[in-house]
Amino acid sequence: MKTWYSFFSLNIIEYLIPAISIYGLIMITYFGVRILFHFLNKPFLKPIKISTSIIIPCYQEVPEVFAECLESCLKQKSDEVIVIDDGSKDLTNYKQAIRIAKKHSNLIVLRQEKNQGKRHAQAVGFKIAKGEILVTVDSDTVLEKDTVKELIKPFIEPRIGAVTGQLSILNKSTNLLTRILNIRYIVAGILERAAYSYFGVVNCTSGPLSAYRKSLILDNLDDYLNQIHKGKKCTFGDDRRLTAITLRNGYSVFFQKTAKAKTLAPTSFKGFTTQQIRWNRSFWRENYLSLKWIWKRSTYLTIGTLMDMFLPFLYFGSLIWSLSISVTSFSMFFFFPLLITAPLMAFVRNFDYFKMTKAKDYALVPLYSWVYIVVLLPITFFAIFTTSRTGWGTR
Fold this sequence. Notes:
Elements lengths: L9 H31 L11 E7 L4 H12 L5 E7 L5 H10 L5 E6 L5 H11 L4 E5 L3 E3 L3 H5 L8 E10 L6 H23 L10 E5 H6 L1 H5 L2 E2 L2 E2 L4 H11 L3 E12 L5 H22 L3 H4 L1 H30 L7 H14 L1 H7 L7 H20 L11
Parallel strand pairs: 1-2, 1-4, 2-3, 6-10
Antiparallel strand pairs: 4-7, 5-10, 6-7, 8-9
């Protein structure tokens, strides 16, 4: 006759413990190493004199946001700011930029009659830019006062080919989703990119705010514009592609936490999932392609890339394993520990956010872990099998 304590039998524990302990041990070790190296990474402090060109591709942007973006870029004292309207149907932003250009001699405004995508719009700016450093800024991103000044400091070292900055959410107060995403964006910089940066191998610069050596980009512009994957031309994943080009050519990629900007985040579940599908597709595409050369470039980059690709499968396997044990034992008790592991790890992983902001939103950290389980994990596997799809899904 079964009793309640039969659910705690040694046989069940024997099968359950590996699922939880193996995942937990790997996660603790992996994030422990990241935490260590992010502490060791320090920003560059010495100013540098080098010419810069800010490139802003724009397509169907919210006029108020674009105006704020452009104003913040013009305050950076860069040699030039280049706006490329990528065939927007609404000419409000283009006309607005033309009016502003009459008051700013360093503002260049261009327009493509046909929408060709972000990469092509950027390339138009890359080709005419006079600056030695190309600063890429998204049209929904607002820079702080000295963002570019801080962003270019690492270029004092010739080995550095690209630099990315620290992002937070411009519309973080909109709803619960944007508040959670604000934590995610910040931690992606101060922890994840910072750890890679210690070795000079940040694996993905930030699309809304990054800088590159012009000579490097122009030498590899054909690769960037005409990348083909599974017979189709790649349209999104510009940040990951530029990062891969930089690293593959022997340059270092650095994270400069003192270069700060705020960018718009999705405010709806549909917008969030669309964004994540696009990001995950470029993640899997570029990581798969990088396996051919990263092992020659950096041990940390290689291990980090393999771990980032392996962990979703490990976590999914652990979930299925523990769920099957729970079902066969007629008790969900055995499923709960694994569901709790991720939120607890999230508190540790995101502690820097609390130290930096002292924000009450730190209490929302576990929510992102559950969003990962319910939403992002399925998206991950969907993205793996649809990497060849090229649509942005927005605008």
